Amino acid sequence: MQWIPAALSAAVLFTACKPKQAGNVVSGDAASKVYVAPGKYDEVYLFTSGGYSGQVGVYGVPSGRLFRVIPVFSVDPEKGWGYSEETKPMLNTSKGFVPWDDSHHPVLSKTAGNDDGRWLFINGNNTPRIARINLKTFRTDEIIELPNTGGNHASPFCTENTEYVVGATRFSVPSDNEDVAINTYKKNFVGTVNFVKVDKESGNMSMAFQVNAPAVNFDLARAGKGMSHGWVFFSCYNTEQANTLLEVNASQKDKDFIMAVNWKKAEEYLAQGKGVKKAASYVHNRYNESTHTATSEMLKEVMTLDAKTLKGICYFMPCPKSPHGCDVNPTGEYIVASGKLAATIPVFSFKKMQDAIAKNDVEGEFDGIPVLKYSSVIAGEVEKPGLGPLHTEFDSKGFAYTSFFVSSEVVKWNVETRQVVDRIPTYYSIGHLCVVQGDSKEPFGKYLVAMNKITKDRYLPTGPELCQSAQLIDISGEKMKLLLDFPTIGEPHYAQMIQADLITKNQVKIFKLDDNKHQYVAKNEKATKVVRNGNDVHIYATAIRSHFTPDNIEGVRVGDNVYFHITNLEQDWDVPHGFAVKGAGNAELLIMPGETQTLKWTPTFAGVYPMYCTDFCSALHQEMQGYVRVSPAGSSVPLSFSTGSNNGEQPAK
Amino acid sequence: MQPRIPLKNFSRWIIALSSLAMIGAYFTSVWYIDLSAPQYPEGLGLEIWVNGLKGDLDSINNLNHYIGMATLHTDEFPEFVILPWLLGCMIAGGLFVAWRNSRKVLFWYLVCLILIALVASYDFWRWEYKYGHELDPHAAIKLPGMSYQPPFLGYKQLLNFLAGSLPDVGGWLIIGGGFLIGGVYFMERFSQRIFKRKQ
């Protein structure tokens, strides 16, 4: 009966013969490479997009520690962003106050093609906007809306000297507020590409011009550098011009396009007066650091250039299957495009593109824009790199790193030979990746951060909604090494890394009280007052360790608009004060040293309301409190305020 | 007519028990298609029962539509109507062989089992071929020259998925039963010869 055990062992063998998958290997010295001793600084800043949180996350690398969430497009009650009177205008749009957006791509400002550590730009995808964050204060200083744009996705990639940041429509749309049938896409929809000028000194943004291009979906962009300075490259999909079920309908053509935009040419046309001013409505919001107050301005005109009639601004380069990433190597010679449904990575040559344009080597036109011949512009393809290529960044040694969503890996390849040299799995399904200064002329390299779309079993579970995740990979050697997993806020679409010292040297520690030009500032306790103006009650108050002045306020009535203008009199680093009032249908304030912030409160019930400092400021923080008495509407309780008078009322000034 | 060659009692017990064990295939999965990918470390499984498809059918259908593979639905397979009856016949046949106690009947029963195995294998392979090759021309991901036929037995890499095709519990009961019955037949023949030679 020997064959009975034989048959049984055959069964066991069959089930055991599953081939081994690539293991989750972390090398032995990974821990020491990510360990930043207490009190020591990380080497690199990582700025991640907050994705659908609308914000920006600031992390240290290699530790993966979260330092700050910078509020940008979404309200943040913790910091009073969008709740204080000073910050509300920042979230104003042509459609009114919008409390949220979807932020995708943080982009560091550049000088001579290298990260200069001055500003960080980020796009709002939903209500199309670009924000500028000041890296001295880590605050959002400016937000500009883009007119006639639907989904500002290919944004805000900047040119070599931050001459422009760009923003192109992901959802081609008719002009704003135009009421047309959806299925007239081909006839009525326009693909707008916006060039936003950035002032060299102040960083202030202004809408320079808008190129009207064929209606397609613009996905991502990168500016040329070095030899390709003067151009911006945009990946385009849905060249099928479908207006429904894009999942299928926008995936039919074998090739979509990379659109090359010659912005120097566009500037020439503008100088010749070829631009057309069109009516539009979009806002420009600015935060003034000396008044500590934002203003929102509605703009009514936009300069447009028609790419179909003004020849030489736009060219299409055919690119396989719905290109997503569109990245330019450090020398500016190669444009690496990744068709997310393609089986190869096409690498375009800027030189060959110039030749093809000079020789008019075109295969046809798409909606009035010349389409260059694929074979004339391609430098080569990376063969069999993986599945679902998305984004590419570069190191200083001539290597490119491309993320692969479907095969869930990072693939390292040689830019010149286009040979794959190494690959490493990611957990799981990577989207963007970034290398330290990996999109600049001189990448720093060393670290690569993979931003994954799926975490599944990588962390302690937290119900159906799991954390988002980044993975730190050491790219200093020949082989890539996984160092660390760390969770991130929102969905980190894209991130950028920069050497820390480029930023730390410029840090603002406090705002100078003497320079505070806020309309309602009280620069010392003697200057505090309470002023009634009809139903508006303005409280000019101060905060210093550990009391508010005034801290007893009476004479407020139900239905009044009460404005607490709190000035933080501290002039030391890291002594913010917080402020909150019981029952206020609002958020708290966090007031930095030397700053004034305003909380508006409209009490609806009579009573005595405590107010207090929310940010632990001193040993007597718990004592930093006060009261506001609210009397019924029409009450004759006189307006009064005081600090330190336990016997009650003092006459109002 | 040749005289009936009876079977040993031990053999009849093995045949009867093997047949009865096949009843278990009504309550367990017969075949298992195992899919794992980097982002599916826990794997996705398709269970083929005698009367239908179970397991992560919805997830598999949803994933495969990107590359244009047909969605799978139990009611589109006539096999799942036939298979329960066929299995019943196999079980009844085995019990009949044990009762009839004839080597010749056992021989013909074995021939039937082999034929069923061949037809079922062909049918399975033919379905796998169709499933992997007949792709929707409007699929989002079309890779030139790529087809997605799952392996007949064992493992195969299909894009980012490692696909495995293996008998499941019910399948092992049927295959094991079939092999035991086959083994019994050969034992009956060989042991006699060995016995005769030794004599």
Task: Walk me through this protein's architecture.
The complex is a heterodimer of chains A (653) and B (199). Chain A is mostly beta strands. Chain A folds into 2 domains: 43-504, YVTN repeat-like/Quinoprotein amine dehydrogenase (Methylamine Dehydrogenase, Chain H), CATH 2.130.10.10; 514-642, Immunoglobulin-like (Sandwich). In chain A, strands 6-7-8-9-17-18-13-12-11-10 form a 10-stranded mixed β-sheet. Chain B is of the alpha+beta class and 199 residues long. Chain B has one domain: Butyryl-CoA Dehydrogenase, subunit A, domain 3. Chain B contains 5 helices and 5 strands, in the order H-E-E-E-H-H-H-E-E-H. In chain B, helix 1 packs antiparallel against helix 3, helix 1 runs antiparallel to helix 5 and helix 3 (79-100) runs antiparallel to helix 4 (103-133). Chain B is elongated. The model of chain B has no long low-confidence stretch (mean pLDDT 90). The interface between A and B is medium-sized, with 30 and 28 residues.
> End-to-end distance of chain A, in Å?
109 Å
Outline type of chain A: globular
Question: Would you identify the CATH H-level superfamily of the largest domain in chain A?
Answer: YVTN repeat-like/Quinoprotein amine dehydrogenase
Helix percentage of chain A? under 10%
> Helix count of chain A, per DSSP?
8
CATH class of the largest domain in chain A: Mainly Beta
The CATH class of chain B, by name, is Mainly Alpha
The SSE order of chain B reads HEEEHHHEEH
**Strand residue content of chain A:** 35-45%
Q: Name the structural class of chain B.
A: alpha+beta
- Spans where pLDDT lies below 50 across 5 or more residues of chain A: 1-8
Looking at CATH, which topology of chain B would you report? Butyryl-CoA Dehydrogenase, subunit A, domain 3
